[in-house]
Design brief:
This protein is of the alpha/beta class. It is built from six helices and ten strands; from the N terminus they run H-H-E-E-H-E-E-E-E-H-E-H-E-E-H-E. A ten-stranded mixed beta sheet has the order 1-2-3-4-5-6-7-8-9-10, covered by helices on one side. The protein is elongated and about 60 Å long. It starts with a helix and ends with a strand. The N terminus is likely disordered.
Length: about 260
C-alpha cells in the first residue's frame, strides 16, 4: 500500500512538472529578446568598426572596452557606430578626418570614463554632447582649438580627476570653473593663455598632484600659490621664465614638490 501511494505521488509530481514546463514554454520571450537584440547590434557595430580599420580592444570576456585611435583611424562614419558599444570606457581620437559635427554621437556613449581627443580641429564648437557624459574621470582636449566656451558643458565636475586643455585658448577667466573641480588630481594647461592670476584661483586645491603650466606667463612670485596645494608633487614649467633662485627657495619651503623646466 505504501509503495502504491509513493508511486501515485511521484506520478502527480511528474504531471505538475510537465504542466509547469508547458507553461514556461508559453511565456512570451520578448523580455529576453532585448539583450540578444542589443548584443547583435553591438556585434554589428564591432564588425563595422573593424571593417573601417578602427583598432578596437576587448577584455578577457570579449567585450569591447577600449579604442585607441591615435593615428586618425576614426572618421565621422566610424564615430556613428560607437554608441552601440555599451561597455566602452576608454576612447582616444587623435588626428584624422573627424569633424566637430561628427562627434555628436558621443552624447550616447554614457559608459565612457576616459576620453582623449587631440590634434583635430574643433574650433568654435561648444561640444554640447559633453553635457551627457556625467561620469567622466579623465578628459583631454589637447590641441583641438577649443576655447573656454566648452567648459559649461562639462558636467562631470564631481568625478573628473584628469583634465588636459593644453594648446588651446584657455585664459584666466576660465580658471574659476576649472577650480570648481575639487577632485582634480592632474591638470594640464601647457601652451594656454594662463598667467599667475589664473594660477591664484587654484589655491586650496587639496587633491591636485600634477600641474603642467609649460609656456604659460607665470612669474617667480606666482610659485607661492603652490604652497596652498598640499598634495602637489610635480609641476612642469618649461618656458615660463621662472628663475633659478625662485626654484631653490621653493625646494626649501616645499621639499616634496618637484618643478621641471
Amino acid at each position: 500500500m505504501k509503495g502504491a501511494v509513493e508511486k501515485a505521488a511521484l506520478a502527480a509530481s511528474m504531471v505538475l512538472l510537465m504542466a509547469a514546463c508547458g507553461s514556461i514554454s508559453r511565456i512570451p520571450i520578448s523580455a529576453g529578446a532585448q539583450p540578444q537584440e542589443h548584443k547583435t547590434e553591438e556585434m554589428k557595430a564591432a564588425e563595422a568598426l573593424l571593417r573601417l580599420g578602427v583598432p578596437v580592444q576587448k577584455d578577457s570576456r570579449g567585450v569591447i572596452r577600449w579604442i585607441e585611435a591615435a593615428r586618425g583611424e576614426l572618421s565621422d562614419e566610424a564615430v556613428g557606430y560607437l554608441p552601440a558599444l555599451s561597455n566602452l570606457e576608454w576612447l582616444e581620437i587623435g588626428g584624422g578626418s573627424v569633424s566637430a559635427a561628427g562627434l555628436a554621437p558621443l552624447k550616447n556613449c554614457v559608459s565612457l570614463r576616459r576620453l582623449y581627443i587631440h590634434d583635430i580641429r574643433l574650433d568654435a564648437d561648444e561640444l554640447a554632447w559633453l553635457s551627457h557624459l556625467a561620469s567622466l574621470e579623465a578628459l583631454s582636449l589637447q590641441r583641438t582649438g577649443i576655447s573656454g566656451r566648452i567648459l559649461k558643458n562639462i558636467k562631470a565636475v564631481d568625478t573628473l580627476k584628469v583634465l588636459n586643455l593644453s594648446g588651446n585658448s584657455i585664459d584666466d577667466a576660465d580658471m574659476d570653473f576649472i577650480a570648481s573641480m575639487k577632485g582634480l588630481e592632474v591638470l594640464a594647461l601647457a601652451g594656454t593663455k594662463i598667467t599667475g592670476a589664473g594660477i591664484a584661483k587654484l589655491q586650496g586645491m587639496a587633491r591636485l598632484n600634477e600641474l603642467n603650466i609649460a609656456h604659460c606667463a607665470v612669474q617667480d612670485a606666482d610659485l607661492d600659490y603652490f604652497l596652498t596645494m598640499p598634495n602637489l608633487r610635480i609641476v612642469y614649467a618649461e618656458g615660463c621664465g621662472i628663475g633659478d633662485m625662485a626654484i631653490e627657495q621653493m625646494k626649501f619651503r616645499f621639499p616634496m614638490l618637484a618643478i621641471f623646466r
